[in-house]
Specification:
177 residues, mainly alpha, 7 helices, 0% strand
């Protein structure tokens, strides 16, 4: 019971969410159905946002959910819907590159473990300002308003183009039958 008293709830949440991130990331790679893979990707992104919350990075967590779990997953689903063909078969999960990929992965894990123990702890060079979200908002809506609006316009054009392409593909499929 002494171990449970020594670990804080935030640390327990951090480790649980980190485990969910790793497991869901592995499932993204190893699940055969591509739609299920996208769902596990969304779980990975939302869990990563939870990790950011445990580290007191509220703004990064909100951006993670909105941009990655929302926009990126929806974009991938749009891509699947546009590319999906009836004659697409399932791919072979293990091929000749599996052993090489496992070796490279093990090497990267060992190297990062070695470097993390060699470097030790890192201290913050300066205190973080209290109102970082307000500062980011002020910069986005004053100094960087033009790039911000251009990015919003590009996203809108991409969304309209995706809807147009999806309707065109559906119309072609209806005329083929």
């Amino acid at each position: 019971m002494g171990f449970l008293n020594s670990i804080s709830y935030v640390a327990a949440a951090f480790h649980t969410l980190a485990a969910v991130v790793v497991i869901s990331a592995l499932l993204v790679v190893f699940v055969r159905n591509i739609v299920h893979s996208v769902l596990w990707l969304a779980v990975c992104f939302v869990s990563l946002a939870g990790v950011f919350l445990t580290l007191n990075a509220d703004f990064i967590a909100a951006v993670q959910v909105m941009v990655y779990a929302g926009a990126v997953c929806i974009m991938v689903v749009f891509g699947i819907m546009l590319i999906r063909r009836r004659d697409m078969g399932e791919t072979n999960l293990f091929n000749g590159q599996t052993v090489a990929a496992a070796g490279v992965t093990a090497l990267v894990i060992m190297l990062s473990g070695f470097l993390s123990f060699k470097v030790g702890s890192v201290t913050s060079p300066a205190p973080v300002p209290a109102d970082t979200v307000g500062n980011i908002a002020t910069l986005l809506l004053s100094k960087y308003v033009i790039p911000f609006e251009v990015a919003a316009l590009l996203l809108l054009v991409a969304l309209v183009g995706a809807v147009f392409l999806a309707k065109e593909v559906k119309a072609d499929a209806d005329s083929d039958s």
